[in-house]
Amino acid sequence: MVHYKFGRCTVCQFRLRPDNVYTLKNCNHTFHHECVSRWISEGSKTCPRCRVSATLADIKQLYVEEASDGSDDSGDELIQSSSNMTTQNPSKILKINSEHEKEIEEINSLEVEIKKANDLTDKKFGDLFNFVSLLNNLVFVKIKNKWKEIDIECCDNECINTNNPVGNCVEGNGFANLINDENIKYLVGKSGCDKNVYIYAENSFKKPQNCFNYTLYYFEIKCKFEGELNGSESHMFIGFRNCSTTNYISYYARDGKIYDEEGGAFQPSTFSWKNNDIFGCGLVYPPINMSNEFPYVFFTQNGKQIGKGVLLKDNFDSYKPRVHLDCCSVEANFGNDLESKPFKYDISKHLILKEFY
């Protein structure tokens, strides 16, 4: 008896289970039935994985009969033998037995290829990414993240930098320290000036490949004013850096303005900024088969959306979380542990935006 692991559906990226594994007859790649049928019925007349032409009639199910020898079945494996491996389509069930050696060999070869591909995917994304299904055909991507890169100097000596993120500026300038993965502490200057600091997260929010759902990335920060006692004014931008162009999409809390990548500024009807306010920034990618739609960015404050969304019409593939600070400390929530530390904004109720600046 041979055991196989199917891994994930190419369309939705969730695990395949023995009772919901379907193939296309021209290529034998595997998917959930609802994913591949919707993919084809909504206009993509090809396999989501290899782009071989496909129709609804090409969809066949792979399934296993109940094993009689007490073999363990974890729910993620296909157990194949000459007598219990079958395929079916809506009109016919084809029994695979000892007379179908060629078909069995092809299935064996296919499953080896799938296992290799899934092992590579799991190795790359298993510890880093986790997909959480939400409402409205939306999937939230949990990605382990932390503050990593300091993109400006405290002074000519570069006392505080990406490789040495904790310390004091020898010239007495105010600057930020990366205290830990989530906390940035701004140290107000003693004798120099308070410098603006640009800080980026370690991991980018990347456009998913072959995803049939809307995909949501999101993070939040809690602000703490620093230097108010000595008259220093706090400033904070939250947003993303385009990893291809280095342009920014940001919300400026002091003035309540949203900036797009071209530098255009948009003013929501009302705004305020108080100590300990929580700001969030989200990025939504459309499904791969909706080529007429674009990704967009939105911002939140204390659990409520700020204004409208910002369309990313150039449709770039990667954006990195970013903050721009001056006399302001922040504590981030990258969603690493949402059970003990949930977002202020309820991502499960996010509706796909239709209004943009």
UniProtKB/TrEMBL annotation:
The keyword Zinc-finger belongs to this UniProt entry's keyword annotation: yes
Compositional bias annotation for Acidic residues: 67-76
Record's keyword terms, sorted: Coiled coil, Metal-binding, Zinc, Zinc-finger
InterPro entries registered for this protein in UniProt: B30.2/SPRY_sf, Znf_RING, Znf_RING/FYVE/PHD
Limits of the RING-type domain: 9-51
Biased composition (Polar residues): 79-88
Residues forming coiled coils: 93-120
SMART domains in UniProt: RING
Region ranges (Disordered): 67-88
One record GO biological process: protein ubiquitination
MF GO annotations: ubiquitin protein ligase activity; zinc ion binding
Top-level lineage group: Eukaryota
Keyword S-adenosyl-L-methionine belongs to the record: no
Protein name: RING-type domain-containing protein
